[in-house]
TrEMBL record:
Enzyme Commission number(s) from the entry: 3.2.1.31
Lineage of the organism: Bacteria, Bacillati, Actinomycetota, Actinomycetes, Micrococcales
Protein name: Beta-glucuronidase
InterPro entries: Beta-gal/glucu_dom_sf, Galactose-bd-like_sf, GH, Glyco_hydro_2, Glyco_hydro_2_cat, Glyco_hydro_2_CS, Glyco_hydro_2_N, Ig-like_fold
Biological process, per Gene Ontology: carbohydrate metabolic process; glucuronoside catabolic process
Domain Glycosyl hydrolases family 2 sugar binding: 12-177
Length: 599
């Protein structure tokens, strides 16, 4: 699925802005067949939960309705007209006029539909979408629905972030010619200093495309013809971490036919023993797990916040992030492509472990992988989420690894039977990138049942917080013991994809203890000492970039406070200590880079 772009042959009409909004039950039985009231409007893109003050909206479980009138340009006659939703959390059913046109399940990947037969250029069309935020054992992420005493559904979620919902990303109409380019797949390689861009082009009518590769100045580098081929690039300028270079692959269907331009970064990714290699050079990940999360907007995409977050990552010396725990808006990957930031791209498969809470607070356990919990239906939804992730993000050079799950019950019986076909599917869809999952602490090097299926060991560990709370000496010993156990047992690189402590900004203590800013500094410094002693560790991604909202509970006071930055992006004291470490790493890689004077 190609990202909509304006070209010589394609046009876009953004549908962002204010839409009419209603909860299911506030309007008639067929809301799509009538005009919704205008007394409540909701912005798109944004999650609806925090915008309004009514508690029944913030905590709503079930369907909501979005609707707006769309003026279809008269100049679009004779073109194919497509309606695209960049996401709808967690499922969407869309109508044009009175007609159902598309349904989609999965809240973090796009879907679109050809509506040429449902609209008339020069006239107004009514677009309505029903969005359902309910999660079950047959959705990704999974959840549990229970019926409250008042007879209404209540949602229990298995992930530790707020279940924001709505149209959190852009909605667009766009056009293509009737005979059009449907998809492009690019894979790159470098052999003996010669770059290669392998391409496949899918066209609607099997037309033979012409293909050109142009450099950043628009100069023609090489060209080809046909629906598949390989372009040789002498002396290629590689896409590298911190030094991005993007070529343009221009695809055309005949003289005056459809045209599409795809940015291409030439680079290689490989795992060799306990090294992670980009362009055949060892790479060390520094950065964060993040969330799409901000005040009022919830998970709503915001270009201003996007640019500011990247500025903060650059300031602190981060070279990477993980899209925890779902695919982010594609704008994040496009910007990472431009900035040379490395991305671990993750599906929304978080919560495939029904015993985590029991491990923390005690209580009965049950089988995670079973017909009553994570079943064949769960795995089918999981497989579809992998397909849609790779279909959308396969061409981004910033994406160097697929993460197909976060903290599953990988030490439990049934885990291998569940995951083995999913790993095979991922490798079939994209044999060029390593595959991983984020491992939770109950699954150690001596009892994990699936780690051998994957290329990289990614660990989420909280020694010093959930275990050995406040005792960093004991935590340091436990952490090093486990990392050395992984390194000795599995000849794979290790990335610490989560480690951190809840920290209340402004809380200081002469005797550092949990929740203080001093404890956050001491905690991270301890982890970094251990990382530096274990050669197999090739990355550190702190949990979390910024504080974020969670469901209310006794473990969370107005959300998760593990951020290095507050939710409104102010640095905590640890930020400068972290900047000193990471900027020194940058300077060590390039002797020409001075360590900034403000460290």
């Amino acid at each position: 699925m190609l990202t909509p772009r304006t070209t010589r042959t394609r046009d876009i009409r953004p549908l962002d802005g204010l839409w009419r909004f209603a909860l299911d039950g506030e309007v008639g039985e067929r809301p799509w067949a009538t005009r919704l009231p205008i007394d409540r409007l909701v912005p798109v893109p944004a999650s609806y939960n925090d915008i309004f003050l009514a508690p029944e909206i913030r905590s709503h479980v079930g369907v909501v309705w979005y609707q707006r009138d769309v003026h279809v340009p008269a100049t679009w006659g004779g073109q194919r007209i497509v309606l695209r939703f960049d996401s709808a959390t967690h499922s969407g059913t869309a109508y044009v006029g009175d007609e159902l046109v598309v349904q989609h399940h999965g809240g973090f990947t796009p879907f679109e539909v050809d509506i040429t037969e449902h609209v008339m250029p020069g006239e107004v069309a009514r677009v309505t979408i029903a969005i359902d935020n309910r999660l079950t054992s047959e959705t990704i992420p999974p959840g549990v629905l229970v019926t409250g005493k008042d007879g209404r559904d209540q949602q229990l979620i298995r992930h530790d972030f707020f279940n924001y919902a709505g149209l959190a990303r852009s909605v667009r109409l766009y056009t293509t010619p009737v005979d059009h380019i449907r998809d492009i797949t690019v894979r790159t390689d470098v052999v003996d200093g010669l770059g290669a861009v392998h391409y496949e082009v899918d066209t609607s009518a099997g037309s033979e495309p012409a293909v050109e590769l142009r450099d950043e100045d628009g100069r023609l580098v090489t060209s080809g013809h046909g629906t598949s081929g390989s372009l040789s690039v002498p002396d290629p300028k590689l896409w590298e971490p911190g030094n991005a270079y993007l070529y343009d692959l221009v695809v055309r269907l005949g003289e005056g036919g459809d045209e599409y331009t795809l940015p291409v970064g030439i680079r290689t990714v490989a795992v060799r023993g306990q090294q992670f290699l980009i362009n055949d050079k060892p790479f060390y990940f520094t950065g964060f797990g993040k969330h799409e999360d901000s005040d009022i907007r919830g998970k709503g995409h915001d270009d201003t916040l996007l640019v500011h977050d990247f500025e903060l990552m650059g300031w602190i010396g981060a070279n990477s992030f993980r899209t925890s725990h779902y695919p982010y808006a594609e704008e994040w990957l496009e910007y990472a492509d431009r900035r040379g930031i490395v991305v671990i791209d993750e599906t929304a498969a978080v919560g495939l472990n029904i015993n985590i809470a029991a491990g923390l607070v005690g209580g009965a356990t049950q089988r995670t992988f079973s017909p009553e919990a994570m079943s064949d239906a769960t795995r089918a939804a999981h497989a579809e989420s992998i397909r849609e992730l790779i279909q959308r993000d396969k061409n981004h050079p910033s994406v160097v690894m697929w993460c197909i799950a976060n903290e599953p019950a990988s030490s439990e019986e049934g885990a291998r039977e569940y995951f083995e076909p999913l790993v095979e599917l991922t490798r079939t869809l994209d044999p060029t990138r390593p595959v991983t999952f984020a491992n939770q602490g109950a699954a150690r090097f001596d009892n994990d049942r699936i780690v051998d299926l994957f290329d990289v060991v990614c660990l989420n560990r909280y020694f010093g917080w959930y275990e050995h709370t406040g005792d960093l000496a004991a935590a340091e010993g436990a952490l090093e013991e486990e990392l050395r156990g992984w390194a000795a047992t599995h000849d794979k690189p290790i990335v610490m994809t989560e480690y951190g402590v809840d920290t209340l900004a402004g809380l200081h203590s002469a005797h550092p203890g949990p929740w203080s800013e001093e404890y956050q500094i001491d905690f991270l410094e301890m982890y970094h000492r251990v990382f530096d002693r274990v050669d197999a560790v090739v990355g550190e991604q702190i949990w979390n970039f910024a504080d974020f909202q969670t469901t209310s509970g006794v473990f969370r006071v107005d959300g998760n406070k593990k951020g290095v930055f507050t939710r409104n992006r102010r640095p905590k004291s640890v930020a400068r200590a972290l900047r000193a470490r990471w900027m020194a790493m940058v300077a060590a890689l390039d002797e020409r880079t001075p360590i900034p004077s403000d460290i």
